[in-house]
Amino acid sequence: MAWAGRIGTTAYWLAALASSAAAAAMLAWYTPTEATMGPIQKIFYLHLPVAINTLLACTTVFVASVGYLWQRRMAWDDLASAAAKVAVLTGLVVLLTGMIWARSAWGVWWTWSPRLTFTLMLWLLYVVYVMVRPAVQSPERRALVSAVYGLVAFLDVPLAYFAAKLMPDIHPSSIELGLSMKLTLAAWFVPVTMLCAGLVLARYRLNERARRGAAEPGWAPVGDAKPSRAEA
Q1: Quick one: which of 102, 119, 149, 222 is 20 to 30 A from 5 by CA?
Q2: How do residues 80-104 score in pLDDT, each as one tens digit?
Q3: Block means of pLDDT (10 residues each) for the chain, length 232 residues?
Protein backbone atom coordinates (compact mmCIF):
# COMPACT_ATOMS: atom_id res chain seq x y z
CA MET A 1 0.00 0.00 0.00
CA ALA A 2 1.05 3.57 -0.66
CA TRP A 3 0.99 4.60 3.00
CA ALA A 4 3.25 1.70 3.93
CA GLY A 5 5.74 2.81 1.27
CA ARG A 6 5.69 6.36 2.59
CA ILE A 7 6.27 5.16 6.14
CA GLY A 8 9.16 3.00 4.98
CA THR A 9 10.72 5.89 3.06
CA THR A 10 10.36 8.24 6.01
CA ALA A 11 11.87 5.68 8.36
CA TYR A 12 14.79 5.18 5.97
CA TRP A 13 15.65 8.87 5.78
CA LEU A 14 15.23 9.31 9.52
CA ALA A 15 17.68 6.46 10.05
CA ALA A 16 20.09 8.10 7.61
CA LEU A 17 19.74 11.39 9.48
CA ALA A 18 20.31 9.70 12.85
CA SER A 19 23.41 7.88 11.60
CA SER A 20 24.72 11.16 10.17
CA ALA A 21 24.31 12.85 13.54
CA ALA A 22 26.02 9.95 15.31
CA ALA A 23 28.93 9.98 12.85
CA ALA A 24 29.31 13.76 13.19
CA ALA A 25 29.32 13.45 16.99
CA MET A 26 32.02 10.79 16.84
CA LEU A 27 34.08 12.99 14.56
CA ALA A 28 33.77 16.00 16.85
CA TRP A 29 34.22 14.44 20.30
CA TYR A 30 35.55 10.89 19.95
CA THR A 31 38.05 10.87 17.08
CA PRO A 32 41.53 12.19 17.94
CA THR A 33 43.12 14.93 15.87
CA GLU A 34 45.85 13.61 13.58
CA ALA A 35 49.27 14.83 14.77
CA THR A 36 50.72 15.91 11.41
CA MET A 37 47.81 17.46 9.51
CA GLY A 38 45.69 18.61 12.41
CA PRO A 39 41.89 19.10 12.21
CA ILE A 40 41.84 19.24 8.38
CA GLN A 41 42.62 15.51 8.34
CA LYS A 42 39.08 14.83 9.54
CA ILE A 43 37.75 15.57 6.06
CA PHE A 44 39.13 12.12 5.21
CA TYR A 45 36.20 10.49 7.04
CA LEU A 46 33.83 12.02 4.51
CA HIS A 47 36.15 11.87 1.50
CA LEU A 48 36.79 8.12 1.49
CA PRO A 49 33.16 6.92 1.95
CA VAL A 50 31.97 9.31 -0.76
CA ALA A 51 34.78 8.12 -3.07
CA ILE A 52 33.86 4.47 -2.57
CA ASN A 53 30.18 5.22 -3.12
CA THR A 54 31.03 7.09 -6.30
CA LEU A 55 32.71 3.95 -7.62
CA LEU A 56 29.67 1.92 -6.52
CA ALA A 57 27.35 4.29 -8.38
CA CYS A 58 29.50 3.94 -11.51
CA THR A 59 29.42 0.18 -11.07
CA THR A 60 25.63 0.34 -10.85
CA VAL A 61 25.57 2.19 -14.18
CA PHE A 62 27.72 -0.59 -15.64
CA VAL A 63 25.51 -3.39 -14.29
CA ALA A 64 22.33 -1.63 -15.45
CA SER A 65 23.89 -1.06 -18.89
CA VAL A 66 24.68 -4.76 -19.19
CA GLY A 67 21.16 -5.53 -18.02
CA TYR A 68 19.63 -3.31 -20.70
CA LEU A 69 21.78 -4.73 -23.52
CA TRP A 70 20.87 -8.23 -22.40
CA GLN A 71 17.14 -7.84 -21.72
CA ARG A 72 16.19 -4.57 -23.48
CA ARG A 73 14.05 -3.59 -20.49
CA MET A 74 13.67 0.14 -19.93
CA ALA A 75 13.78 -0.32 -16.15
CA TRP A 76 17.51 -0.98 -16.52
CA ASP A 77 17.90 2.33 -18.33
CA ASP A 78 15.98 4.09 -15.56
CA LEU A 79 18.42 2.66 -13.02
CA ALA A 80 21.51 3.52 -15.08
CA SER A 81 20.37 7.12 -15.50
CA ALA A 82 19.64 7.45 -11.78
CA ALA A 83 23.01 6.03 -10.74
CA ALA A 84 24.89 8.21 -13.23
CA LYS A 85 23.40 11.37 -11.78
CA VAL A 86 24.34 10.32 -8.27
CA ALA A 87 27.85 9.50 -9.51
CA VAL A 88 28.19 13.03 -10.89
CA LEU A 89 27.07 14.53 -7.58
CA THR A 90 29.26 12.36 -5.37
CA GLY A 91 32.19 12.63 -7.77
CA LEU A 92 32.07 16.40 -7.39
CA VAL A 93 32.17 16.03 -3.60
CA VAL A 94 35.18 13.72 -3.93
CA LEU A 95 37.06 16.24 -6.06
CA LEU A 96 36.26 19.19 -3.78
CA THR A 97 37.13 17.42 -0.53
CA GLY A 98 40.26 16.03 -2.17
CA MET A 99 41.35 19.53 -3.17
CA ILE A 100 40.89 20.78 0.39
CA TRP A 101 42.98 17.84 1.63
CA ALA A 102 45.65 18.48 -1.02
CA ARG A 103 45.98 22.17 -0.14
CA SER A 104 46.76 21.27 3.46
CA ALA A 105 48.86 18.14 2.86
CA TRP A 106 50.81 19.09 -0.28
CA GLY A 107 50.51 22.87 -0.42
CA VAL A 108 48.63 22.88 -3.75
CA TRP A 109 44.96 22.62 -4.66
CA TRP A 110 45.62 20.19 -7.51
CA THR A 111 48.39 18.02 -8.92
CA TRP A 112 48.18 15.80 -11.97
CA SER A 113 48.98 12.57 -10.17
CA PRO A 114 47.60 9.33 -11.70
CA ARG A 115 44.77 8.83 -9.19
CA LEU A 116 43.64 12.45 -9.27
CA THR A 117 43.77 12.51 -13.06
CA PHE A 118 41.77 9.30 -13.46
CA THR A 119 39.27 10.51 -10.86
CA LEU A 120 38.72 13.76 -12.74
CA MET A 121 38.36 11.80 -15.99
CA LEU A 122 35.80 9.53 -14.32
CA TRP A 123 33.71 12.48 -13.18
CA LEU A 124 33.85 14.09 -16.63
CA LEU A 125 32.82 10.83 -18.30
CA TYR A 126 29.64 10.68 -16.26
CA VAL A 127 28.97 14.39 -16.68
CA VAL A 128 28.99 13.75 -20.43
CA TYR A 129 26.73 10.72 -19.91
CA VAL A 130 24.14 12.87 -18.12
CA MET A 131 24.42 15.74 -20.64
CA VAL A 132 24.16 13.58 -23.77
CA ARG A 133 21.06 11.61 -22.79
CA PRO A 134 18.50 14.43 -23.29
CA ALA A 135 19.88 15.05 -26.79
CA VAL A 136 18.67 11.62 -28.00
CA GLN A 137 14.95 11.82 -28.76
CA SER A 138 13.99 8.13 -29.07
CA PRO A 139 13.78 6.44 -25.66
CA GLU A 140 14.98 3.11 -27.07
CA ARG A 141 17.90 4.68 -28.93
CA ARG A 142 18.76 6.81 -25.89
CA ALA A 143 18.83 3.69 -23.73
CA LEU A 144 21.00 1.83 -26.24
CA VAL A 145 23.50 4.67 -26.68
CA SER A 146 23.65 5.21 -22.91
CA ALA A 147 24.19 1.50 -22.24
CA VAL A 148 27.13 1.28 -24.66
CA TYR A 149 28.59 4.50 -23.25
CA GLY A 150 28.09 3.17 -19.71
CA LEU A 151 30.17 0.10 -20.52
CA VAL A 152 33.01 2.19 -21.97
CA ALA A 153 32.98 4.76 -19.13
CA PHE A 154 33.31 1.98 -16.56
CA LEU A 155 36.82 1.20 -17.84
CA ASP A 156 38.05 4.21 -15.86
CA VAL A 157 36.73 2.84 -12.55
CA PRO A 158 39.54 0.29 -11.94
CA LEU A 159 42.06 2.86 -13.19
CA ALA A 160 40.89 5.40 -10.62
CA TYR A 161 40.85 2.80 -7.84
CA PHE A 162 44.17 1.05 -8.49
CA ALA A 163 46.20 4.01 -9.81
CA ALA A 164 47.89 4.85 -6.51
CA LYS A 165 48.59 1.16 -5.84
CA LEU A 166 50.12 0.35 -9.22
CA MET A 167 51.84 3.61 -10.22
CA PRO A 168 54.06 6.17 -8.47
CA ASP A 169 51.59 8.65 -6.98
CA ILE A 170 51.66 11.47 -4.46
CA HIS A 171 48.24 10.25 -3.32
CA PRO A 172 48.64 7.71 -0.49
CA SER A 173 47.65 4.15 -1.42
CA SER A 174 46.74 3.43 2.21
CA ILE A 175 46.58 5.26 5.53
CA GLU A 176 47.38 3.88 8.95
CA LEU A 177 44.54 4.51 11.41
CA GLY A 178 44.13 3.86 15.09
CA LEU A 179 41.13 1.95 16.42
CA SER A 180 39.08 5.07 17.21
CA MET A 181 39.79 6.42 13.71
CA LYS A 182 38.73 3.13 12.11
CA LEU A 183 35.49 3.14 14.10
CA THR A 184 34.75 6.70 13.02
CA LEU A 185 35.44 5.84 9.40
CA ALA A 186 33.11 2.85 9.62
CA ALA A 187 30.45 5.07 11.21
CA TRP A 188 30.70 7.55 8.32
CA PHE A 189 30.24 4.81 5.74
CA VAL A 190 26.72 4.16 7.07
CA PRO A 191 25.05 7.56 6.41
CA VAL A 192 27.01 8.21 3.21
CA THR A 193 26.03 4.83 1.76
CA MET A 194 22.43 5.25 2.88
CA LEU A 195 22.29 8.71 1.32
CA CYS A 196 23.73 7.57 -2.00
CA ALA A 197 21.54 4.47 -2.19
CA GLY A 198 18.48 6.51 -1.26
CA LEU A 199 19.20 9.10 -3.94
CA VAL A 200 19.64 6.40 -6.59
CA LEU A 201 16.36 4.77 -5.60
CA ALA A 202 14.48 8.09 -5.47
CA ARG A 203 15.74 9.11 -8.90
CA TYR A 204 14.99 5.65 -10.30
CA ARG A 205 11.38 5.95 -9.15
CA LEU A 206 11.10 9.39 -10.74
CA ASN A 207 12.46 8.02 -14.02
CA GLU A 208 10.08 5.08 -13.90
CA ARG A 209 7.04 7.25 -13.18
CA ALA A 210 7.97 9.69 -15.96
CA ARG A 211 8.36 6.85 -18.47
CA ARG A 212 5.11 5.16 -17.52
CA GLY A 213 3.23 8.44 -17.51
CA ALA A 214 4.56 9.54 -20.90
CA ALA A 215 1.45 8.30 -22.70
CA GLU A 216 -0.98 9.99 -20.30
CA PRO A 217 -2.61 13.35 -21.17
CA GLY A 218 -1.04 16.33 -19.48
CA TRP A 219 2.24 14.56 -18.86
CA ALA A 220 5.30 16.76 -18.40
CA PRO A 221 8.78 15.30 -18.90
CA VAL A 222 11.05 14.90 -15.87
CA GLY A 223 14.84 14.89 -16.26
CA ASP A 224 15.80 12.59 -19.14
CA ALA A 225 12.25 11.85 -20.19
CA LYS A 226 11.17 13.16 -23.60
CA PRO A 227 7.70 13.12 -25.16
CA SER A 228 7.28 10.93 -28.20
CA ARG A 229 6.83 12.53 -31.64
CA ALA A 230 3.16 11.58 -31.59
CA GLU A 231 2.72 13.60 -28.39
CA ALA A 232 4.82 16.58 -29.49
Answers
A1: 222
A2: 999 999 999 999 999 999 999 888 8
A3: 77 95 94 82 93 97 98 96 98 95 86 90 97 93 97 95 74 76 94 97 94 63 50 38
- Counting other chains too, the contacts that 59-63 makes at CB distance below 8 Å and 24 or more residues apart are 59/154, 59/157, 60/200, 61/87, 61/126, 61/129, 61/150, 61/153, 61/154, 62/150, 62/151, 62/153, 62/154, 62/157
Q: What is the CA radius of gyration of the chain?
A: 20
30 neighbors 180 (Cβ within 8 angstroms): yes
pLDDT at 228: 47
Domain ranges for the chain, please list them. Answer: 43-211
| Residue pair 198/13 in contact by the 8 Å Cβ criterion | yes
Q: What is the pTM of this model?
A: 0.88
List CB contacts of 50: < 8 A, sequence separation 6 or more. 90, 93, 94, 97, 192, 196
